[in-house]
Amino acid sequence: MSNEALSNLSHEDRRFDPPADFAAQANLTAAAYEQADADRLGFWAEQAERLSWESRWDQVLDWSNPPFAKWFVGGKLNAAYNCVDRHVEAGAGEKVAFHWVGEPAEDARDITYAELKDEVCRAANALVELGVKAGDRVAIYLPMIPEAVVAMLACARLGAPHTVIFGGFSAEALSSRVLDCGAKVIITADGGYRRGAPSALKPAVDEAVAKVEAEQPGLVEHVLVVRRTGQEVASTEKDLWWEEVVGRQSSEHVCEFFDAEHPLYVMYTSGTTGKPKGILHTTGGYLVGAAYTHWGIFDLKADTDVYWCTADIGWVTGHSYMVYGPLANQATSVMYEGVPDAPHKGRWWEVIEKYKVTIFYTAPTAIRTFMKWGDEIPASFDLSSLRLLGSVGEPINPEAYVWYRDTIGGSRTPVVDTWWQTETGSILISPLPGVTSAKPGSAMRAIPGIAADVVNDEGESVPDGSGGYLVIREPWPSMLRTLWGDDERFKETYWSRFEGMYFAGDGAKKDEDGDVWVLGRVDDVMNVSGHRLSTTEIESALVSHPKVAEAAVVGATDEMTGQAVCAYVILREAAGDGGDDIITELRNHVAHEIGAIAKPRQIMIVPELPKTRSGKIMRRLLRDVAENREVGDVTTLADSNVMRLISEGAATST
Ligand code: WT7
């Protein structure tokens, strides 16, 4: 960990204790730490009681073949049954599962647990009719509409692992994921709404299916299309309308129970190479982790709380904290389709006021945006229902933390800064809202049941006051089991750096009190607005453009988005200067290859890239330029003039 990153951490003296009345009613108390320390597996077995098991496990953890963990060995359950049916059977059928708030603004409806059960059963019956069996993969590419939740749960009900692809991803991203996990059905929509206007999804699916056909003919058997916007769509022979196929099914479906280790879903995330990794989560342990943390870290009181997580269903946060955790806990949630600033910049606060939201979970990038828009916007809404706020996705800077707590939380709500990853499945490091005296900017310490540490290059625990790498020392129930189809890469990526420990890829510091400050990625992975992007993946996208000879991408610090994508591009000789619109052309090309979120903030056309004598690109120097810093040590450069050329170019192009 660079000293520079460590010293960037401002000294933070502010502490926020949980209000006494909050602490007095909190779900998780300090005793949980002691209990879990004394008997970790016993603690997890107790958490597993939150679920309904068809048959119980014989062994809590089988770690005889590390790093391949098996949790709740021999146990059988059904994730959809746990999320829906059992609540209806317990008499909570009339309870609202989701206040769905769509776009346009007047398009909103409440969905009860009973209605959700009927829809999930219909969708499950429809998938059976389409030939989906336990173990088959189903890709889901949908906007934030109720059918997205229904589709996920219908797959879970059948034991058919789903892979949800964020609706903002490109046809290319969709096809590569469908091919990688071998999905035989794609569930999608004609389009979704963005700022009140219909925005098409289906053309990207058609393009993706054509690509898949070219590589593996017949892999995708059906495309099930939800009619959301009613816009014209080209139809292909694989297309079926959701309304027709799902609509004609019975709302009864008797579910099968699966082994605790049966695959639940695959979620793709960026790694250090160009190829996204298919993170595999299984059923029992994942659901235990999601339910326990959603109950404990968000202090959920299922009968009275109204919970809102603003994440899109296409990310892991949407999986664990919009679908599986809240539904397993019988929560009432808000599900929001739109964006924060349409029809106006107070829209989120209006939703909180209207539904009397009590628990709110969002990302630092959104918080910083609201800060910029000004206090008067949230001030004109009644936010007094809020009792707990959460943050996730990237380190939250202390100023944003304090603003969030004061301006949104009325200076009374605890704020939980939750650290976790797609791989971890659920929150691992966070304050406990009723226990921890929280420091703005620190995720504090591992939650009960989790053994996190910060280690040096040799894998030794660092003393308080020092920095190093964030690791997890013991397996945990919701951990990824492997990378889809690639056990070797799984071992190599997470378990080879430090013997017997899970390496998260983040740098971190333990402060004088031993509390953890997560500093960000130490690998070639960027974090833009809480979304993980790989430098290599964007480089590959740029190089696939006919005018580009070479490209290097770095993540530069950005006030709003945490990091921003900055690209340095060498054009092919035949392309000349690339033409007037070369920058726009390349930005659009990246959007087409990966998705709009990967569009570089800045592209600089350069004559050369800084390389060591062995040919490795020195990204450190490019980051210096992107962050307008004096360029650091260049002695290992093969050609010491290169940086002068690049810096001059950067000065004239910005
Ligand atoms: C990476 C994981 C977990 C869901 C959202 C992102 C960063 C996440 C925090 C936090 C500091 C954080 C880490 C991590 N990160 N939460 N509270 N403080 N950094 O999931 O795409 O898998 O990204 O996000 O760098 O490794 P993801």
UniProtKB/TrEMBL annotation:
Binding site for Mg(2+): V543, H545, V548
Metal-binding is among the record's keywords: yes
Domain AMP-dependent synthetase/ligase: 90-476
Domain AMP-binding enzyme C-terminal positions: 537-616
This enzyme's EC code(s): 6.2.1.1
GO cellular component: cytosol
Residue numbers carrying N6-acetyllysine: K616
Binding-site positions, CoA: R194, R195, G196, A197, T317, S529
GO molecular function, one term: acetate-CoA ligase activity
Catalytic activity: acetate + ATP + CoA = acetyl-CoA + AMP + diphosphate
InterPro entries, sorted: Ac_CoA_lig, ACAS_N, AMP-bd_C, AMP-bd_C_sf, AMP-binding_CS, AMP-dep_synth/lig_dom, ANL_N_sf
The keyword Magnesium appears for this protein: yes
PTM description: Acetylated. Deacetylation by the SIR2-homolog deacetylase activates the enzyme.
Alphabetical keyword list: Acetylation, ATP-binding, Ligase, Magnesium, Metal-binding, Nucleotide-binding
Top class in the EC scheme: ligase
Ligand binding (ATP): G393, E394, P395, D417, T418, W419, W420, Q421, T422, D506, R521, R532
UniProt-listed PANTHER family: ACETYL-COENZYME A SYNTHETASE (PTHR24095), ACETYL-COENZYME A SYNTHETASE 1 (PTHR24095:SF14)
Protein name (Swiss-Prot/TrEMBL): Acetyl-coenzyme A synthetase
Native organism: Nocardioides marmoriginsengisoli
Gene name of this polypeptide: acs
